[in-house]
Design brief:
By secondary structure, the chain is of the alpha/beta class. It is built from 15 helices and 21 strands.
């Protein structure tokens, strides 16, 4: 759990400033501690009067055309990647000491995330989320079959975003989405990354400190669960919705503040899996190719992303499945070495795996608990959460047997062979799964598709109807 301690002048802590609607707030009032590495960083106190704009204020982006907003986002993305951008360079340096991912992975994640700030991408996202994107820019006239007329608008909301700590790239997407729906945004930064969000916003402010996108954005850090802060901010008097990413504890903490008028849009904990049919085991060449595809899904963001595969259901006899496990371990270990990620497994997982090694008649284990890649074969999913380059291969007689393990927390299903996907998609959806893809393609996604079984931007906005009250003509 994150902690807050009083500042110790003798203790050196990296500064994590806030961004408040165009202004940067520095301060070392509080020493914070990151959840994953226990590294300290210094922040100001949260200035409530500056992060909560009054309800009487019309959102700065309300009457700015979405085309202009997209142009500014695209320009910001180009500036983010510039070699002379001091904010992003400083951000990466600080991330290297505060985040569990190695430097190369952090840099690649940010670079890839900026590709979201492409006008073609942003246009596709809007068109997929809104049947009529004009509703963001104007009151769209409507009429029903009775002749009653009205106007509808996707009105700019007031959003608090509780950001995840696993991927710095989510900051880029969240800023873009908050701007596209013309929201007033307050981003609660994660302890694992209290830097990226502010670095992006400072880049934008350098382009135009008075731009309405800049004036619509604030970013601050406080410890999740800090009731003294959250009971002030998490109120319908100030915000419409809370957009929450994170694990079970983070989501449960937010839920306790919900009330009429204050809604939750939740990107809650998800687990992704692989389903591998017997066709993968027909010969050594195919087996190795499929194992490599599977390893790509396991190692998405070094298995920190929700789309990263945790469990791999493989159809076939144990002897053949064990051959698959051996090659899967080889490719996971290769990808781990290439990434430079040398984190060891945590103690609880190490102890669980060591117990499985002693029970070799029930489990198969390839690799060690040294964080260089590990595969555990079992007849049912293990009772710990595979993470940090760890795969749990579950042997099944038929992929039909894997369907029973699907639930509403199952996000992405990587599938092989590809020609059997259509046979399973309805059953996977009925179980609660949200996405099925070719094995090896868990990371990339079709632009504008639903995320976690919803169109997020459509849920972000405040839908407002203006009815003119014209009654249908009386029958004659």
């Amino acid at each position: 759990m994150n902690t807050i301690t009083e500042i110790n002048p003798a203790e050196a802590a990296v500064s994590a400033p806030f961004f408040l609607r165009g202004e940067v707030l520095h301060g070392s009032d509080v020493i914070q501690k990151s959840r994953d590495l226990g590294v300290t960083f210094a922040t100001p106190k949260v200035p409530f009067d500056r992060v909560v704009p009054p309800r009487t204020e019309v959102p700065p982006l309300l009457n700015v055309p979405t085309a202009e907003i997209m142009d500014f986002l695209v320009e910001s993305g180009q500036r983010m990647l510039a070699s002379d951008n001091p904010y992003m360079q400083e951000c990466i340096e600080r991330m290297c000491t505060h985040h569990i991912l190695p430097r190369a992975v952090v840099e690649n994640t940010i670079r890839h995330a900026v590709s979201y700030l492409d006008k073609r991408v942003l246009t596709a996202v809007l068109e997929q989320n809104f049947p009529d994107p004009r509703a963001l820019d104007m009151w769209v006239p409507k009429s029903d079959f009775t002749g009653r007329k009205s106007f509808v608008r996707a009105f700019a909301p007031r959003l608090i975003h509780v950001m995840p700590g696993n991927s710095p790239g989510v900051a880029v997407q969240s800023i873009a989405q908050g701007a596209l729906v013309k929201a007033i945004n307050l981003f609660k930064m994660p302890s694992a990354d209290p830097f990226t969000m502010v670095a992006i916003l400072r880049t934008m402010a350098d382009l135009d400190p008075e731009h309405p996108v800049v004036k619509s954005m604030s970013a601050a850090y406080w410890r999740g669960g800090d009731d003294a802060t959250e009971r002030v901010l998490y109120r319908p008097q100030y915000f419409d919705k809370i957009v929450a990413w994170g694990g079970g504890d983070a989501i449960n903490n937010v839920i306790k503040y919900l009330m009429p008028g204050f809604q939750l849009v939740s990107f809650d904990p998800k687990t992704s899996i692989s389903m591998v049919g017997k066709e993968a085991l027909v010969n050594d060449e195919t087996l190795d190719q499929v194992a490599d595809l599977c390893s790509a899904d396991v190692m998405t963001l070094n298995q920190e992303a929700c789309v990263a595969s945790r469990y791999q259901f493989v159809e076939g006899p144990q002897e053949d499945v064990d051959r698959f496990c051996e090659r899967l371990h080889f490719h996971i270990a290769r990808r781990a070495a290439e990434s430079g990620d040398v984190r060891k497994l945590d103690q609880d997982m190490r102890e669980a795996v060591e117990m499985m090694v002693m029970m070799d008649d029930e489990f198969g284990v390839w690799g060690k608990t040294d964080g260089k890649g590990l595969v555990v074969r079992s007849d049912e999913p293990v009772d710990f959460h595979p993470i940090n380059k760890t795969a749990n291969v579950v042997r099944v007689d038929s992929l039909d047997d894997a369907v029973k393990w699907i639930n509403v927390a199952t996000q992405t299903v990587g599938f092989y062979p590809f020609d059997r996907m259509a046979d399973y998609r309805d059953r996977l959806a009925a179980g609660g799964a949200q996405r099925i893809v070719h094995l090896g393609e868990a990371g990339p996604s079709t632009i504008g598709n639903p995320h976690d079984a919803m169109y997020p931007l459509h849920r972000f906005v405040h839908w407002m109807a203006h009815e003119d009250g014209v009654e249908p003509a009386a029958p004659r």
